[in-house]
Amino acid sequence: MADHSTYPVGLRHSPDKHQRLRQALSNPSILMAPGCFDCITAKLVANAGFSAGYITGSGVSMSALGAPDMGVISFAEVLERAMRIADSVDIPLICDADTGYGGPINLIRTVRDLERAGVSGIQIEDQAWPKKCGHEPGRKIVDTDEMVGRIKAAVDARHDDDLVIIARTDARTTEGIERAIERAQRYHEAGADVLFVESPESEAEMRLINQSLTAPTLANMVEGGRTPVLPATELEGIGYALAIYPNSLTRMIAHQGAAMLQVLKQSGATAGFADRMVNHRGLWDLFDYPTWTELENRFSKT
Predict the structure, then answer these.
(1) Are 243 and 269 within one domain?
(2) What is the rounded average pLDDT for all residues in the chain?
(3) How many domains, the chain?
(4) Assigned domain for 184 exists
(5) Which domain holds residue 185?
(6) 146 and 229 share a domain?
(7) What is the pLDDT of residues 201-255, one digit of tens each?
(8) The 242-245 sheet, strands edge to edge
(9) How far is CA 133 from CA 23, 58, 59, 130, 290, in A?
(10) Which uninterrupted H or E stretch holds 266?
(11) Peptide bond preceding 130: is omega within 30 degrees of 0, i.e. cis?
């Protein structure tokens, strides 16, 4: 059997990604998972030394369709992007799977296809379709029993028991924090590994979530959103096991990209922005260019 250990990440499969994610969630220190929406942003997350990444549904919708996070994107489009991202980096990835994209049978397919694509954690929420960003108004949620069915279907569908199922509830905004916590507890009883109470509106509510729930919890850090954005050490002290930063990179790229384009438009050159850009070689090396070249040479005619 050929030894593929020296292949670029895009040409090898790491079968222990699920196990690594589950182990990281059991550690006493909080797991930070920055958002990514394509292979470039995933590479940046991995190369920065983070132990996991978060495939952001809103970021994928914006980058793939030019559309906001309003349920416009299809499962096929999310799956294609998730597969490419998972094949490009060697860190575990959590994928935002919205509502599961249909009824129980659709959700079973969603879990199985994402697991085959190389995703190690799948997030499912209790919104009604079409879903919306968890920090925007107008969200509608399904009844608790329907979401319990979604979680049970997801748990039953996974092939590897180490695949992490994350249950998100958006009940805080419409039903209050106590009701949201009650829902999260029901989802844990249904088999969810991690609980995600979306958009708590104060540090006191964040503390209440962690005092009330025994399962690992997720904090969603959205700059300018409904929830206080706290340092990871403070989130860890509150009791969170996982923190995601869905669109931090997206916002930075939008801001810096706009600034660079203004420099180019006004001066006719990018020199004024050069110190804030990687050079040609740096960009190519981000994608393991020397390794790809060595592999090409190994099998090319001489």
Answers:
(1) no
(2) 92
(3) 2
(4) yes
(5) 15-247
(6) yes
(7) 999 999 999 999 999 999 999 999 889 999 999 999 999 999 999 999 999 999 9
(8) 194-197, 164-169, 121-125, 93-96, 53-55, 31-36, 242-245, 218-220
(9) 29, 7, 11, 10, 40
(10) helix 248-267
(11) yes
pLDDT digits 0-9 by tens, 21-53:
999 999 999 999 999 999 999 999 999 999 999
Other residues' Cβ atoms within 10 Å of the Cβ of residue 60: 24
Answer yes or no: do 147 and 186 share one domain: yes
Which amino acid is residue 291, in one-letter code?
Answer: T
Cα–Cα distances in Å, from 2 out to 5, 7, 47, 294? 9, 11, 27, 16
Q: Do 158 and 292 belong to one domain?
A: no
What tokens were used for 8? 């670029």
Whether 24 and 84 share a structural domain: yes
Specify whether the CB–CB gap between 134 and 170 falls below 8 A. Answer: yes
Give CA–CA dist 101/154, Å, rounded. Answer: 12
Q: Do the domain assignments include residue 122?
A: yes
Note the pLDDT tens digit of each residue in 255-267. 999 999 999 999 9
Q: Are residues 117 and 68 in the same domain?
A: yes
Element spanning 44, H or E: helix 39-47
d(CA 90, CA 85): 10
* Stronger pLDDT, 70 or 132, i.e. the higher one: 70
The token pair at 65 is 């369709």
Q: Same domain for 165 and 287?
A: no
Task: Tell me the three state secondary structure of residue 2.
Answer: coil
Domain containing residue 138: CATH number: 3.20.20.60
Do 62 and 187 fall within a single domain? yes
- Measured distance CA(56)–CA(165) in Å, rounded: 16
pTM confidence score: 0.93
Number of neighbours of residue 289 by Cβ within 10 angstroms: 13
Which residues pair with residue 243 across a beta bridge?
32, 219
